[in-house]
């Protein structure tokens, strides 16, 4: 039996000093690391004072990116390779989520996934297949790695996707395609296009993310 990698990364405990009542897991993009997305936490702590924020490093070292990690290698971005990569990485993230729920003695309804870029692909890959249903998925600058995911979903958590219309890495067409497939599959999916924004997260996106997380985790 293959042993899955163990994920580790920064953790920010609840701002109220108590035991966690919610978990927010942040999934970074290709070539980045958990320390990057943990920087979003100060924007959301006031709205979620009982949440523990966890930002694991992806399981693989990313070639050519100092201190960078990848969920899977991007030697090819053709749809079949993308889908295969996300599927291969999914069990490791699933096991990590199981471990965090057990550690804090919380239910899936108390868990939200937040992703950026390749991390959004992972959040969508795993979040649609988890049973019982998680609280929600917030995805920035991402896409569906496996476009069959929505139609084959086991659960349908609410989703918010936010994307810059000037993104040179994952063009805005990826956002529209993901939204279309999710809507067709019956998901409660919201979308926001950020005018002039590249492959990044702006203040407006952070504010919308805060509202979404507060809503699904309340």
Automatic annotation (TrEMBL):
Highest taxon, organism lineage: Bacteria
GO molecular function annotation: hydrolase activity
Pfam families, per database record: Abhydrolase_2
InterPro entries: AB_hydrolase_fold, LYPA1-2/EST-like, PLipase/COase/thioEstase
Record has Transferase as a keyword: no
Keyword presence, Hydrolase: yes
Keyword line: Hydrolase
Stretches assigned to the Phospholipase/carboxylesterase/thioesterase domain: 18-214
Matching Gene3D superfamilies: alpha/beta hydrolase
Similarity comment text for this entry: Belongs to the AB hydrolase superfamily. AB hydrolase 2 family.
PANTHER family found in the cross-reference section: LYSOPHOSPHOLIPASE-LIKE PROTEIN 1, LYSOPHOSPHOLIPASE-RELATED
Protein name (Swiss-Prot/TrEMBL): Dienelactone hydrolase family protein
Species of origin: Phenylobacterium glaciei
